[in-house]
Predict the 3D structure of the following.
Amino acid sequence: MAGSSSGKKPVARRIHKGRVGGCLTVFVIIFILISTLINGCTKKHNLQKQKETSETSVSTTVNDHSSETETKKSEYIIIVDPGHGGEDVGSANGDRLEKVDNLRYASVVYEELLNREGIKPIITRQSNDTYMNNEDRAKFANDAGADLYLALHRNKSDDPTANGLEIWVQQDATVIDDVLGYKLKNELTKVGVQNDRGVQHGYTNDKQNNFQIIEWTDMTACIIELGFISNDEDNRLFDAHYKDYAKAIADAVESLCKEGYLDKVKEPQ
Ligand SMILES: [Zn+2]
């Protein structure tokens, strides 16, 4: 009996031990379950957070993008600027003066653009006696709230064999500057030039600077150097085709407007 009684105690202890063990096991299982749940929740929370973060960054990106909205304009103001004028004759070749050549083709560009839908051209001078410096020209364009500025010139070199078409845009050219440059170049070379000298960025021999007129105007701007006044063949081409060149310039400008390149308007922040 003692054996049995003494045998009972261990049983009871075993039972107790077993209960404790069972409780511990249940506790451990519950603990693991709770830990797993908490872990799961934390992970889920973190995932949610990550998702929210990525959604925020996506929506931020979208918002950043949408700060530049494209609104189709009903009218584009284009400044047609025949370079030089008055006492500033520009380059010369004998009696031939650049200011006169510039006005010759600029007048036709202006007339052409007047007939294009949704385009309002403004010419900076209509007489060869009118003098304007570059500051006046830039202010004129900025005050007009122009969308595009075309500075129309002819080139010159001490080397009489230098020839061809050159187009200048700003040194840190945007896509719009480059598209403008290439559209002009493509249309003008279709008419025919001796030499395509390409779309150039910056300033002659200095890619870090801009021509004054490009630097001081607030809108997309370029300079067209339509052949060399110092080259006889370029002059012959100019005299034979200046109206076609002018029409080509108007075609390039019209296409730039129609394709929406001048529509990007920054919303006030
Ligand atoms: Zn010039």
In short: Strands lie at 68-70, 76-82, 92-93, 96-97, 119-123, 148-155, 165-169, 196-201, 220-228, 264-266.
